[in-house]
Amino acid sequence: MKLLSGKFAIVTGAASPRGLGKATATLMAAHGATIGVLDLEATAAENVARELGDGHVGLACDVTDKAACETAAERLLSAWGRIDILVNNAGITQPLKIMTIEPENYDAVLDVNLRGTLYMSQAVIPQMRRQRSGSIVNLSSVSAQRGGGIFGGPHYSAAKAGILGLTKAIARELAPEGVRANAVCPGFIATDITEGKLTDAMREQILQGIPMGRVGTAEDVAGCCLFLASDLSSYVTGSEVDVNGGSLIH
Ligand code: NAD
Questions:
Q1: 11: CB partners within 8 A, 6+ apart
Q2: For residue 70, pLDDT beyond 80
Q3: The whole model's pTM is what?
Q4: What is the spatial distance between Cα 38 and Cα 72, in angstroms, rounded to a whole number?
Q5: Which PANTHER family does the UniProt entry name for this protein (predicted)?
Q6: Which of 14, 55, 57, 78 has its CA 20 to 30 A from that of 205?
């Protein structure tokens, strides 16, 4: 059964070859959605759109730039006539400790993760309101819930916790208008965000904290995003869904 036939979906930060965004875009395309792949570089985004098949669109969009978010949403809306799904996936992290966070670190991490989620949501909400339907899926992290400890520093935890608050507030404000918003909290997933930055000892320590005994895959997260984007989750809004192999059972 295809869950997203006839739907139009934007996924930010979807050009990373092993990333959660690309895996989500791929699964949504397989379920019948037309995808707008957004990322920093046009060529990388266009290449992923081409890989997904005919009809998908790749665009350059820096989510920290409000005008760029609006332009990307307008271009896709004029081609599609509607926007059903937004996955705010673009994110960066830095493995810093509390006293080593410089102003530029704070700005970089908060801007991409939190400001970008706000700006891209603001770019699609007017259309979702007009449609009286839409699903926004925001990538938070287990770091927000347990105060870091996997890889990102305190500023990353703060940004991802900010996303939880923002998601719930969007969900509350837009629920009467038929627009849903939910957050996904992945645990440790092997992607390029940590590639080459993780020692064997760090990896071993992470594995010990995962009851399922394995690191997550991008497809594990994509499946959860698909559920939240689809009508299977039609009565789910303002929730945070853990995808972490049981590492935060409480
Ligand atoms: P990744 O580094 O593989 O991909 C992130 C993508 O975001 C890249 O393609 C990058 O170019 C893009 N990006 C960065 N800044 C951008 C900007 N300003 N505008 C647009 N695009 C931008 O990372 P990933 O592991 O696939 O992570 C995806 C999301 O999931 C992130 O929000 C991350 O914080 C979150 N997350 C990841 C994990 C994990 O273990 N991998 C765990 C929890 C949460």
A1: 21, 24, 25, 28, 35, 36, 37, 38, 87, 89
A2: yes
A3: 0.98
A4: 8
A5: BLL7886 PROTEIN, SHORT-CHAIN DEHYDROGENASES/REDUCTASES FAMILY MEMBER
A6: 14
| For range 71-92, the mean pLDDT | 98
ipTM > 0.90 for the complex: yes
> In angstroms, what is the span from residue 176 Cα to ligand 1's centroid?
31
Query: In a mutational test of the pocket of ligand 1, which residue from 138, 193, 215 has the highest number of ligand atoms less than 8 Å from its CB?
Result: 193
Q: Residue 188 in contact with residue 215, Cβ under 8 Å?
A: yes
Does ligand 1 lie within 6 Å of residue 245's CB atom? Answer: no
Residue 176: Cβ within 10 Å count: 8
For the purposes of burial, counting CB atoms within 10 Å of the CB of 56, is it exposed (0-12), middle (13-18) or buried (19 or more)? buried
In whole angstroms, give the CA distance from residue 137 to residue 184: 7
| Model pLDDT, residue 151 | 84
The tokens describing 65, both together, are 């730039």
Q: What is the mean pLDDT of residues 133-138?
A: 99
* Residue 236, ligand 1, Cβ within 6 A: no
User: Which residue ranges form the domains of the chain, and what is each CATH number?
Assistant: 8-242 (3.40.50.720)
Burial of 22 (0-12, 13-18, 19+ CB in 10 A): buried
Predicted confidence (pLDDT) at residue 230 exceeds the cutoff of 80:
yes
